[in-house]
């Protein structure tokens, strides 16, 4: 199951369970004639239903969707208003499902912040109205619940991040990621040493990427990065591999490619990128640093460092250019 689907499922189930819970409270209050609480619970149930609809509308951008924060801030404020204005001892328990919903739907920090903002006045109201022993039991229960749920979500986020780091493809571009680069480059170096064939690499960096991010936002630069990956896959030949190092830098491993060859392909990449009209951002240039394996290159770090320094040299020389840095000559 993809992350988007998982989030849509958990968010909608969370909102639906909250709707059922709040609706039951509304009905109970109607039965006992607590009309203010009935109206409040009905309003909150409508908001949670709105949350279900919003989850499906924004299913591609669950975590960054600002509407969830607005919906949950509305629900938390409604509950807080009820707590402070109505003298009903059981109402503090309503905070429990609200905490879970905050943490389930919002990014961890926002969820914790909103929950603490709800719990502090709730605790004060409970302390003020109930016998100290009862009040402390309720408050401790609420804070223990908040802590346990936050720790659980922090643990989940941490595991998800590790899984992402371990994955070999970049989630934005579909190119291989940096972790996989070292593994493949080491294998290619060993193969080149064993067979004596040439091996070249290219470090490619988008010029003025920070300025582009300021102008077109993170989303604009991510789209450019994705389009550029597709473009590069179209230019390189089978057997070459492409990696994303960070949000503006690529790395290419080119087996069976001598110095003359890497100069040709690097120049072709530079020219085709500069000539291309990119969606949203228009014209873009890149700086490319390339190198070919020399006799001293038996490990990845030397080759990567030399390619990176060559890229920086290309950039120093005015960007939109290629710089080749030679290793030690291999003598047969
Ligand atoms: N690794 C790699 N090298 C390339 C690529 N394109 C060109 N080169 C290198 O540049 C040299 C000259 O390439 P071209 O100008 O395309 O000439 P070509 O006669 O079509 O080269 P071949 O692809 O070897 O048939 C090649 O022999 C390769 O060493 C590429 O996509 N990947």
Automatic annotation (TrEMBL):
Signal peptide: none annotated. It catalyses: 2 GTP = 3',3'-c-di-GMP + 2 diphosphate. One of its GO terms (molecular function) is diguanylate cyclase activity. It is an enzyme of class 2 (transferase). Its EC number is 2.7.7.65. The keyword Nucleotidyltransferase applies. InterPro entries: Diguanylate_Cyclase, GGDEF_dom, Nucleotide_cyclase, Rev_trsase/Diguanyl_cyclase. It comes from the Bacteria. The chain crosses the membrane at residues 12-31, 37-57, 69-86, 106-128, 135-154. Keywords: Membrane, Nucleotidyltransferase, Transferase, Transmembrane, Transmembrane helix. Residues 197-327 form the GGDEF domain. SUPFAM superfamilies: Nucleotide cyclase. PANTHER family: DIGUANYLATE CYCLASE DGCM-RELATED, REGULATORY COMPONENTS OF SENSORY TRANSDUCTION SYSTEM. This is diguanylate cyclase. It comes from Marinobacter albus.
């Amino acid at each position: 199951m993809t992350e988007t689907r998982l989030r849509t499922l958990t968010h909608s189930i969370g909102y639906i369970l909250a709707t059922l819970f709040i609706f039951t409270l509304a009905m109970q209050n109607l039965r006992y004639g607590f009309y203010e609480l009935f109206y409040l619970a009905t309003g909150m149930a409508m908001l949670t239903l709105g949350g279900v609809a919003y989850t499906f509308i924004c299913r591609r951008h669950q975590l960054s969707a600002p509407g969830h924060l607005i919906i949950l801030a509305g629900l938390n404020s409604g509950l807080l208003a009820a707590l402070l204005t109505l003298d009903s001892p059981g109402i503090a328990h309503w905070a429990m499902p609200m905490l879970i919903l905050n943490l389930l739907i919002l990014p961890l920090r926002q969820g914790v912040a909103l929950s603490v903002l709800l719990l502090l006045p709730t605790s004060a109201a409970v302390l003020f109205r109930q016998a100290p022993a009862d009040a402390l039991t309720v408050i401790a229960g609420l804070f223990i619940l908040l802590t346990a749920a936050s720790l659980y979500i922090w643990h989940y986020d941490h595991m998800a991040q590790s899984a992402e780091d371990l994955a070999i493809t970049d989630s934005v571009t579909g190119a291989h990621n940096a972790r996989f680069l070292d593994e493949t480059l080491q294998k290619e170096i060993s193969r080149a040493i064993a067979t004596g064939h040439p091996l070249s690499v290219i470090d490619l960096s988008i010029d003025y990427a920070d300025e582009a991010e300021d102008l077109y936002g993170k989303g604009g630069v991510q789209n450019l990065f994705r389009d550029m990956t597709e473009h590069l896959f179209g230019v390189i030949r089978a057997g070459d591999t492409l990696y994303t190092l960070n949000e503006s830098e690529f790395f290419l491993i080119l087996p069976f490619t001598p110095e003359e060859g890497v100069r040709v392909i690097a120049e072709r990449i530079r020219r085709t990128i500069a000539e291309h009209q990119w969606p949203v951002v228009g014209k873009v240039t890149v700086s490319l640093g390339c190198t070919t394996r020399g006799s001293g290159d038996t490990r990845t770090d030397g080759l990567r460092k030399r390619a990176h320094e060559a890229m920086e040299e290309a950039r120093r020389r005015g960007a939109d250019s290629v710089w080749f840095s030679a290793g030690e000559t291999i003598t047969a």
